[in-house]
Write a structure and sequence with these properties.
The chain is an alpha/beta fold. It has a single domain, classed as Glutaredoxin, CATH 3.40.30. 40% of the residues lie in helices and 18% in strands. The strands form three sheets. The protein has a five-stranded mixed β-sheet. Strands 1-2 form a two-stranded antiparallel sheet. It is globular, with a radius of gyration of 17 Å.
């Protein structure tokens, strides 16, 4: 993660950390009852969006109401980070699915492109399909993607365009786990591999 992405995240989560520190008495009480508050409880993450799937069909955030959701923002032309993260994410999800089939059926993994200029519905659909049939790929207009990224506290910026027209995208690398009400629960540890992702899912999804 670049310095710009890290700075953006620190600013967005500053109030969350403050709120958690002020809520220590409540957290201590919960721990005494053998319950653990979600790491992202109370964070202003997630919100309405309108994007399109691989068939060009409109998809909204409210359509997933009642289901757990995994949300990752990236782009298909990413040379390394995105494919590695999504591979770990979906391999972890598959492990979780094999161990907890009924619970996994309540979860919808979602990939949202931050590069709509190149990531057409067809391109996103083909890319996400390589990671399994359960991963839903979404894209949209630049304005739609901007709105979705802002709602999920996701930073991204287009890099320098090369003579051949190519470019990279600087962006945050976070896989959010959202509850059936669309509220943030935790960040899945894709950087630690599939087993860690599966363990984290089993910890929260119920």
């Amino acid at each position: 993660m670049t310095h710009g992405a890290m700075t953006y995240l620190l600013r967005r989560f500053a109030f969350l950390f403050l709120g958690l520190s002020l809520g220590l008495p409540l957290a201590a009480c919960n721990q005494a009852q053998n319950t653990q508050p979600p790491p992202l409880e109370g964070a202003a993450i997630g919100g309405p969006f309108q994007l399109v799937d691989k068939a060009g069909k409109t998809v909204t955030w409210d359509q997933f109401k009642g289901r757990w959701r995994i949300v990752y923002f990236g782009y298909t032309y990413c040379p390394d980070a995105c494919p590695m993260d999504v591979q770990a994410l979906m391999q972890g999800f598959t492990k979780f699915e094999k161990a907890h089939g009924a619970l996994a059926a309540k979860v919808q993994p979602i990939f949202i492109s931050i590069d709509p200029a190149r990531d057409t519905p067809q391109v996103v659909g083909e890319w996400t399909g390589a990671f399994g049939p359960r991963l839903l790929g979404l894209t949209g207009t630049q304005a739609q993607v901007d709105k979705a990224a802002k709602a999920f506290a996701v930073y991204y910026r287009k890099g320098t365009v090369t003579p051949d027209g190519g470019y990279l995208m600087d962006h945050t690398r976070i896989a959010y786990l959202m509850d059936p009400d669309g509220k943030p629960i935790a960040m899945l540890p894709v950087d630690k591999g599939p087993d860690a992702v599966a363990t984290e899912l089993a910890k929260w999804v119920q």
